[in-house]
Design goal:
It is built from three helices and two strands. It has helices at about 1-5, 45-70, 80-95; strands spanning about 5-10, 15. The termini are far apart. The relative contact order is 0.12.
Length: about 100
């Protein structure tokens, strides 16, 4: 839903997303700053998402399993509010010992 809802201002390049309350434009389909129509990337469609997911399963998922087995992977729920995601990441980074 995040990919399908993604839009961008062609002028200022600000990213918006209809799937996120934090990223929705004030006026549907219009940049809050430039007041021009937002555009979607051509590759933000269901077929491309399916292809990307197949690639994820083939190339990335095995890496995730590898690092989980070594207890070197942290999980953050990206479906949360952006502020909550940021706090979770800060907590992980702050808990790391200094090298």
């Amino acid at each position: 839903q995040r990919i399908l809802g993604r839009m961008q201002c062609p002028k200022c390049k600000k990213i918006y997303n209809n799937a996120s309350l934090d990223l929705k434009p004030i006026q549907d389909g219009i940049c809050d700053t430039c007041h021009i129509s937002l555009v979607k990337r051509e590759d933000d469609n269901e077929q491309t998402i399916r292809n990307r997911f197949k690639e994820y399963l083939k190339h990335t998922k095995p890496l995730i399993n590898y690092y989980e087995d070594k207890h070197l992977l942290y999980h953050v729920d990206g479906r949360q509010d952006m502020k909550e995601v940021f706090k979770a990441i800060e907590g992980i980074i702050g808990s790391e010992p200094n090298d």
